Amino acid sequence: MSNKAQRRLNQIKNQVDSLPSPSESLNDERLNPSFPVDEMTHFLNGGKRITELKNKFMLQFERDPAWKLSDQPNLSLPQIRERTLNKARSLISYLITEPVNVFKLRMEVISYIDPAFYTRFGVHAGLFLGAIQGQATPSQMEYWIKKGAITLNGCTGCFAMTELGHGSNVAALETTATFDEITDEFIIHTPTLTATKWWIGGAAQTATHSSVYAQLIINGKRHGVKTFMVPLRDPVDFKLRPGVNIGDCGKKMGRDGIDNGYIQFTHVRIPRSYMLMKHTQVSRTGEVKAPALAQLAYGALIGGRVSMVIDSATFARKALTIAIRYGAIRRQFAPAPGKPETKILDYAIHQHRLLPLMAKSFALHFSGRAVAELNKSLQKQIESLSKGTSEQANVLESLKEVHATSAGLKAFGTWTTLGLIEECRQTLGGHGYSAYTGLSSMYQDFAIQCTWEGDNTILTLQLGRYLITCYRQFLKTKGKLAPGVQYMALSSAPFSASASTDEVCDPVKLAHAWGVVAAAAVRQATQEFESSLEAGLGQDEAYENCSVERLKAARMHYHAFTLSKFVEGISRAPAPLQPILQQLCQLHACNVTSEHASEFLAAGYFTASQLHGIQSRVMKLCQAIRPQAVNLVDSFGFSDYVINSPLGRYDGDIYRAYFDLVRQNNPQEARPPYFESVIKPILTSNYDTIEGPELEIDEALGSQEEDLSAEDDVDTPVSAVGRPNNE
Amino acid sequence: MSNKAQRRLNQIKNQVDSLPSPSESLNDERLNPSFPVDEMTHFLNGGKRITELKNKFMLQFERDPAWKLSDQPNLSLPQIRERTLNKARSLISYLITEPVNVFKLRMEVISYIDPAFYTRFGVHAGLFLGAIQGQATPSQMEYWIKKGAITLNGCTGCFAMTELGHGSNVAALETTATFDEITDEFIIHTPTLTATKWWIGGAAQTATHSSVYAQLIINGKRHGVKTFMVPLRDPVDFKLRPGVNIGDCGKKMGRDGIDNGYIQFTHVRIPRSYMLMKHTQVSRTGEVKAPALAQLAYGALIGGRVSMVIDSATFARKALTIAIRYGAIRRQFAPAPGKPETKILDYAIHQHRLLPLMAKSFALHFSGRAVAELNKSLQKQIESLSKGTSEQANVLESLKEVHATSAGLKAFGTWTTLGLIEECRQTLGGHGYSAYTGLSSMYQDFAIQCTWEGDNTILTLQLGRYLITCYRQFLKTKGKLAPGVQYMALSSAPFSASASTDEVCDPVKLAHAWGVVAAAAVRQATQEFESSLEAGLGQDEAYENCSVERLKAARMHYHAFTLSKFVEGISRAPAPLQPILQQLCQLHACNVTSEHASEFLAAGYFTASQLHGIQSRVMKLCQAIRPQAVNLVDSFGFSDYVINSPLGRYDGDIYRAYFDLVRQNNPQEARPPYFESVIKPILTSNYDTIEGPELEIDEALGSQEEDLSAEDDVDTPVSAVGRPNNE
Lengths: 727, 727
Hints:
Chains A, B: Keywords: Oxidoreductase. Chains A, B: This is Fatty-acyl coenzyme A oxidase. Chains A, B: Its EC number is 1.3.3.6. The structure is a homodimer. By secondary structure, the first copy, chain A, is of the alpha+beta class. Helices cover about 55% and strands about 10% of the residues of chain A. Chain A contains 24 helices and eleven strands. In chain A, the strands form three sheets. In chain A, strands 1, 2, 3, 5, 6 and 9 form a six-stranded mixed beta sheet that branches. In chain A, strands 4-8-7 form a three-stranded antiparallel beta sheet. The first copy, chain A, has a two-stranded antiparallel ribbon with strand order 10-11. In chain A, α9 runs antiparallel to α10 and α17 runs antiparallel to α18 (about 580-595). The longest helix of chain A has about 40 residues, at about 350-385. Mean pLDDT of chain A is about 90; it is low at about 700-705 and about 710-725. The interface between A and B is large, with 221 and 220 residues.
């Protein structure tokens, strides 16, 4: 090569070298934070002390070989199951020694490190133990704790509610628990295939006991679904108990670490005392004593849903951390020939994809906080009810409100986050499809949240039903409205047709406007409901008739609630955080309003040009927040171990880390294992077609099978076929 | 048990038994088809002959053990890779012996039987061979066909375009191909980590050769990205060629059957004749002859995108088949105590979830057909151009139109179907999360379509750019508009404020209205673009400035195009099919209009009460179509083998089939393999905490580490922690 050529090549090389490195690209983003990043972390966590504890836990798990994450994509199903349960061992020591609130925080950190393990452990410590705690008498509780129900020492539990043919409608479960007065036992039985307990986490391989939901039958009479403790396996040799048939539900979309199984009981006998009898009691002679306040049992479901709202916010932040950091490093297309390529996060369209989602993650955060507060105060009320210091009617009102609110937030929150994860995944381009970059598995793990612990659609309808009830109550009593639905009294939007863009984009005013829109949706659903009643339909049919309107009312309520909690939440934030939170809140308010603009336009709450102003504001706010995007995701405070994606690394050295991770997980091999069996035969095949002797009869009689319709072009060359997605 | 009790239990049992069985539930749906189901199948397939051939292929694959599908979820990565390539063997015989159009149809069937294999085979037969076909000179073509490029005999190919750091911007690829005049060779080189070829399908384990995209450099001067044939492995012993480093990209979200790999070239030498020189030519002395019409090479990309539109329709139908059949069998909640539970598809909300998606699948079908026609006529034009019988300018105009249209349809079509699959998956409740019910893997396999062969967002922006160009052209020339964008001349909606619901719900009128709305969106984007130009910005910056508006214009164009093709398509359908197609078309029109109602309201194209009429019509049409839902999915004509989901079986025996499939794939084991290593130690652990001797110093000096903020309730019992999603 000539000297001149060499020089030119060097020039080209230098030009490439003069690009900031990936790490420099990311660090540039951190030079001018507009808010104190650490303080935001503490604010989101609920205090500096909590940040410190979370950091401590993240580090402990990172260093513990049992908690290795980086090789998970390549583990087989048995390997991942083994590794999952193995984590329980190290955790039990913490469970026993740590103060409860510290251990709870540890579990929260675990929830976003390893969702499958979190579920496996939670099935025991939450559902199984929770059933005992919520439904056992004191002596029963003592019995099961002695059996090892807390320490897993001799007793690992699972929770057998769902059946192959029955999910949301718990009352229709088929499994029977028939009282045998002679032996003082219940006979647990699976009468049909569809009664098979299904999806039971921990049942397939690891549980010794199960809390089983079954129809209580005494003397042929049904008394509804109750909970029974049924031993599944011998804790010593782990053999199945007689009459218990268990299998593995196998591969799932995600969370393969948890061993979901199916259980069939064939006339399995348990002592009468194995029915949990805190509420309903069955006497020695088969008399049934029903509880005074059955509804209170539903209180136990709320905690799970509240936590899924918080989960939704957490996973949204985790997904955004990966997508935003990658967007601030990845470069694509140059503004002009010879110039370095532009960071993809500097494109308006990329900002428009990600930054409204960033704002949504904050909205989810504040809603989660709010509903957690609601639940805390409800649980206190329930406690004081048992002490006789609060009124039953009030507690039931609160229960209904928190139940409905948490149901709706769980549904819309998990839907929001699932969509957000997928959008973030797609912003990684092809790399989002890799199992090593974090978002494909996050989607697969998170997807179950939309259908478990209450199918989202059914939960939204429950919220809708509650809203109609509230509104009808309000019409009757004029004025008395639960705190969460005060907006139902609103009927007109806060701005006039001449209001300026600043005015219509004011989050406080938009929150008010959302209240008005939500109220209108509730009114519409209620009218639909009442007109069905007037037409002579029963209550259930009337609710069915307005289900589409109910879902819409629930959705509008969700946005109104979320936005108002965002606005409220900011007021409690430290002053230095308020400006950026205000920007995010306004972005969220404008974005969600723009997404549902037809509601506002149809009711005449704003004009087309005001809508245009709101939409322009979304873009301006995206630009304004863009420089803080990396600082914001830094403030989420996840360590690289927790993020578990080379593309979301704090130091920005993404390509090196990605390459190394893929190489570590897939050692290079001289030849693939199927070279001899498959590849070689293909490379050496001799495709002689089978040719018979020429026959003397007329070939025209032969089959015309291969002729297609005249539409088809038969002249396409062979080499054009088989192109992926070739038409 | 008493005789009386036994009688009552029998009564209960009989009550359950009196429910129609799952199979009866499904067969009931088929009693009164409102249209000839078989005729619909032929219509969708494009003729009875094609239906027959598809049925033949489905049966052939079903019976061929190499094509077993039912155990795929439990295969390891090496197993699934081996099985995938093994299918190539049986296919090559067909490739050689079948007429091209028949084989193309066979490949179409394969595309929805095994997307991973379709991709692996397509990488060779489409991309690798396609590169040769499109870019090789006749003698080069002959050379590579002799090498085995068609039969895979001695030559299995892959297509190395994408790099670790470079995807959509092909012009910025880093891999170099430097001409060495002395030896008459090119030196292929990977200069940096980010230049590593990445995601190369077939590279990891199975390809002997690759068509490599690299920067042509001669005497230090860059001549742009060209295609070079680079041997990777020895076809006899399969050893890597010197200087070639290959690894495996490993696990992905889906399509694990295809062995995506990475390739690094370190000064690999190939003869000059291994550069494909149909377009650009490099002489012995390094002179470069550039082609006259480089743009025509883009024509080759269109086929892939057209086929992805058709894929989108096909996968939508496959997903709907599973969801609709399950919805017509699954029962949940009884209308009154003691009554049998209701089919979930009989709930308005379930219909509202699925039936507009059914209509969307038909819309996708007609759009796919339309763009395939467009492409066919374009390819004919390109052919006749080479014969000198058509005008270059016209061909280029068509090329631009088809390129933009197919890009937009690919983007919005794949997004639509990905969302549709997820919605269908969620309608299966918890069973949608199983790997054996078809929709989780369908989501995972399909997700890549949104980012490969052109990232969707970038494709929509390309369509937006084309629309702006058309509109500016139109303003200049007044009147001359390409067939697909005729609507740009429209400016007012076809109905007045007093128009009846029937009028505004008329699909023909709605299609017109969509044209008006699309035209307005294009106008707005153009105005934004031009005002940037007027402000002195360059063209690229001006396009960047209107990217959000461009995306919106593209989206509106997509809906206008799709709806108009739906309306047109019906007119070509056999008369007995027209009524149901009309219903579906109206449902689609009303639904998509309702989803984008703010566009119509903002422009005053209809009133709030007209919108309300449209929304009510959506619900009425869902009810009207509901009785035909199963007949419609039957008409899609997939065999049970192809559906590959026990919940989507034709005979409706879903629970039995699901149970059997799960059991077959997960044989029951006496004890899990990790009983001794993990489970036993947990069950027998003795959790003595470490306790030291009591010290005489003041304990108050000790750490307060476990205290959290005052907010935390420290009195929560241990047993409440760890609940899955417990707050």
